[in-house]
Amino acid sequence: STTHYASDGVYISTPVVNEKSADVEVKTMLTNASAQQGNLRIEHTVIHPDNKEILTVSKKIRIAGNTVNQSDVQKFKVNNPALWSPESPAIYTVRTRVYDDKSKQLRDEVYQPLGLRWFEFSAEKGFHLNGKPYKLIGTNRHQCYDAIGNALPDEIHVRDVMLLKEMGGNFLRVSHYPQDPVVMEMC
Q1: What b-and-e string marks burial along 59-88, b requiring 16 or more CB atoms within 10 Å of the CB?
Q2: Phi, psi (5° rounding) for residue 62?
Q3: Which band of pLDDT confidence, cut at 50, 70 and 90, is reported for residue 187?
Q4: What distance in Å separates the CA atoms of residue 143 and residue 109, rounded to the nearest whole number?
Q5: pTM (2 d.p.)
């Protein structure tokens, strides 16, 4: 299975992104609770924002019995990426599947969002997104309300992000603790 502490065990990074291509690395943390060795096939499929599958990579691995958090890394390129920005929030999906290589049985499946973009800060030029100057307009947000505390319903998270957007914002600084996943999804 793919688990890693409180996460689903799939980590995606994009070390290099530009208008022509994006390098993508997917790290999968695997656990084999069985005493028997597992022969697995890990498959990553990238789904374009228009819902078309654009590439699939896979790899066979062995995982010893009673193993926790064995990592596997696969690297690939996305050509001519649809770049993410607040005005054009193009979100790819990476579907990770873990199969038993012998029986071909699906053992686990995880879906992760992926926005392809690059940015830079400099004292001379300010902030740039996807190679262009970009003015950040936003606010800070705490996930805590009077008489409710930290246990907020999804509607409040959605409302807060929509209010930020309505006021012309394109940036949200979240506080120093993990935010509800709805906040990240809305952003």
Answers
A1: eeeebeeeeeebebebeeebeebbbbeeee
A2: -115, 140
A3: confident
A4: 30
A5: 0.87
